[in-house]
Amino acid sequence: MTAAPVEPASRLSIRLLDGFRLDYGHQQVHVVPAARRLLALLALRESPVSRTVAAALLWPEATARRAAACLRSSLWRLAKPAGPLVETAEDTLRLGPGVEVDFRRACVLVARAAAPGPPPDASAVALFKADLLPGWDQPWVATEQDWWRQARLRALEALSERFRSCGDHLRAHQAALAAVHSDPLRESAHRTLVELHIADGNPAQALRQYASYRSLLRAELGLSPSPEMNRLVQPLLGGAR
């Protein structure tokens, strides 16, 4: 007898954006902290990870023997609601092929944001707003967090420009605002917003955005906006006199 296919609602999924969560369909699965870290490590790395590397990264202060024992314990503790979460092959580990990861989907959308063809839909902006595993401070997570922080900002700016070129200024503003909220000191994000206000025929709003950024930059870093930013608003300042 052939087994019935697994319905989409019964799939395993791991969320890394806005915090860790393991779901089986619509039900959250409890995972102990050590096993949670193991799943997060494997979810961040699509290629197989050797047991030795995984143990060393997850338990850096333990001896090699102790770290290996902790890894075995974590694997044993993992819940298996619909088949193995982790596949083992020789001395390597990887997530099971049916496990969906939101971060991997977000990375695909990041690549699409600036690529030729139709831009991702508006749901991409919501994904790009989210932090990667907030509150996690392990070194192996920090590298990925730094990459994601920059990648999502570039993607939001690219999306804003593409929405604008398509005449969708509402979504263009949403993407640019998301970039500003993610990094309030990022000039390119503020510049994108100023350009949008100018294109919409709202010079006063453009000047308010510029003034807000200038004040924040001066208060936080003691710096002034770049010549490029100043040149952008100079015609507006001249018109206001």
UniProtKB/TrEMBL annotation:
Pfam families to which the protein is assigned, alphabetical: BTAD
Residue ranges annotated for the Bacterial transcriptional activator domain, each copy included: 101-237
Name under which the protein is recorded: Bacterial transcriptional activator domain-containing protein
